[in-house]
Amino acid sequence: MGLGSDMYRQQILDHYKNPRNYGELEDPTFTHIGENPMCGDEIRMDVKLDDDEETIERVAFSGDGCAISQASASMLSGKLHGKTVDELLEMDRDDVIDMLGVDISPMRVKCAVLAEKVAQDGAEIYQGELDVEKTTTED
Amino acid sequence: MSHQHLEALDVAAIREEFPILQREFDGQQVVYLDNAATTQTPDPVVDAMSDYYRESNANVHRGIHHLSQEASNAYETAHDRVAEFINADGREEVVFTKNTTEGENLLAYAWGLNELGPEDEVVLTEMEHHASLVTWQQIAERTGATVRYIRIDEDGRLDMDHAADLIADDTAIVSAAHVSNTLGTVNPVGQLTDLAHDHDALSFIDGAQAVPNRPVDVKAIDADFYAFSGHKMAGPTGIGVLYGKRDLFEELDPFLYGGGMIRKVTFEDSTWGDLPWKFEPGTPQIAEAVGLHAAVDWLEDIGLERIQAHEEELAAYAYDRLAAEDDVELYGPDGSDRGGLVSFNLDGVHAHDLTSIMNDHTIAVRAGDHCTQPLHDKLGVPASTRASFYVYNTREEIDKLVDALDDARQLFA
Ligand SMILES: Cc1ncc(COP(=O)(O)O)c(C=O)c1O
């Protein structure tokens, strides 16, 4: 029997089983929560900015969900380190899928992009450009 | 329940009528275990619909020409056939809708919105599908009525003592699923209906998961209203049925307005046509009605009791095989008195991941909350994986499902 789809490559499973930057920051610059209502995935992203209020110094995530959503959050938390808030806001779903490095089946894209969306919404709320309590991914 | 006297289904012959079951993805034949979401459609049903389009297509009711007469006849006869199928008193008691959801909404809007008030209670079960739960929640919000839920016990059965407590003089309607699409529980809908009637309340039964796989007799249940969907019973999408007792349908105002449903229209006012057309305005789903008729014929040819026996056998087999796995959590009652579906979780693997892995083996199952979010909250899980069976499924297919669990275990170990 073959060992599963391309979606569950070693890297994804490794990040799922050993998530990086898992937890909550003590003094985040902003924090935001989001969910995939249909899957029950829930993710909280904490972001700490440098003194320049531009550069991302640390990211932590916490939450529950499928391997794709959790691995995506874990990888994103590392990738965002050193980036600016603008660079975060410029990311799109292709960047996330490239980061994951596997084919994501259409129905699972929502899981893949949840962390990115939560981080972006958190940043926009911080900048005063968005007003939502909780991010949800619909289709 | 024992069905030992019934002849087993000739599954091999049945499968020949479903070319889709031969489909392969990456060289693997599809194992279709998502029948609670929608069933596959046998050739005779597809043929009946394409014959209709090739030979008889026209608009109904209003035409004098031959084709319209044929189409009208086919459309109206489909009502008679469905009435006979569920033991209703003729076409007047059978309204064609889009699906079960529309049946729920039709009653909720046509009756609930007009009749409910702040002193009224709507009694549902904790295992209701969102089709009923969300609909009654919304109507309650607009009318000030209160929604109450009959509890389920640890085995996933309704707590009938609680039902007897809840259903009281303030109850205006009891709306309950006949068979739960998540737990597989078969509810005592006759008893619930009796409780409702004892308190002058109406009973609405959601038969979406019952009509496809067991004999249903609306008179024996004494339900006031009963809804189901064609696409879950070997029929086409786009058509469902709302059964209602004739005297209740007669009192009820229409839900949607338009052509084909009126008796007389002036610039000032309109009067409504006969049942069931009063509830079917506009050009209806004619080909789908023809398909539903063919599906009913097809199911009765096989025999609903035999279908039920087959489903119970598969459900019990799947339940036992999965229950033998230490790391599998199952939901709903054990034993054989369950509908043909099993919902479960594999420890340490999210239902969506498990379902993706199943898909790698071309096994079609469903992950999610199955439109019963509050029930999943109560079960304490965000989602589950559901395997659901129909006439064409086999034990070998269930074996494949159980084997595929190993793959998930290895990946996620
Ligand atoms: C118990 C139950 N009720 C209602 C529905 C809704 O059916 P439909 O989507 O055909 O309206 C379903 C199917 O998903 C169901 O299982």
From TrEMBL, chain A:
<dbReference type="GO" id="GO:0016226">
    <property type="term" value="P:iron-sulfur cluster assembly"/>
</dbReference>
<dbReference type="InterPro" id="IPR002871">
    <property type="entry name" value="NIF_FeS_clus_asmbl_NifU_N"/>
</dbReference>
<dbReference type="Pfam" id="PF01592">
    <property type="entry name" value="NifU_N"/>
</dbReference>
<feature type="domain" description="NIF system FeS cluster assembly NifU N-terminal">
    <location>
        <begin position="7"/>
        <end position="128"/>
    </location>
</feature>
<dbReference type="GO" id="GO:0051536">
    <property type="term" value="F:iron-sulfur cluster binding"/>
</dbReference>
<dbReference type="GO" id="GO:0005506">
    <property type="term" value="F:iron ion binding"/>
</dbReference>
<protein>
    <submittedName>
        <fullName>NifU family SUF system FeS assembly protein</fullName>
    </submittedName>
</protein>
From TrEMBL, chain B:
<dbReference type="InterPro" id="IPR015421">
    <property type="entry name" value="PyrdxlP-dep_Trfase_major"/>
</dbReference>
<dbReference type="InterPro" id="IPR015422">
    <property type="entry name" value="PyrdxlP-dep_Trfase_small"/>
</dbReference>
<dbReference type="GO" id="GO:0006534">
    <property type="term" value="P:cysteine metabolic process"/>
</dbReference>
<keyword id="KW-0808">Transferase</keyword>
<dbReference type="GO" id="GO:0030170">
    <property type="term" value="F:pyridoxal phosphate binding"/>
</dbReference>
<dbReference type="Pfam" id="PF00266">
    <property type="entry name" value="Aminotran_5"/>
</dbReference>
<dbReference type="InterPro" id="IPR000192">
    <property type="entry name" value="Aminotrans_V_dom"/>
</dbReference>
<dbReference type="GO" id="GO:0031071">
    <property type="term" value="F:cysteine desulfurase activity"/>
</dbReference>
<dbReference type="InterPro" id="IPR010970">
    <property type="entry name" value="Cys_dSase_SufS"/>
</dbReference>
<protein>
    <recommendedName>
        <fullName>cysteine desulfurase</fullName>
        <ecNumber>2.8.1.7</ecNumber>
    </recommendedName>
</protein>
<feature type="domain" description="Aminotransferase class V">
    <location>
        <begin position="31"/>
        <end position="401"/>
    </location>
</feature>
<keyword id="KW-0663">Pyridoxal phosphate</keyword>
<dbReference type="InterPro" id="IPR015424">
    <property type="entry name" value="PyrdxlP-dep_Trfase"/>
</dbReference>
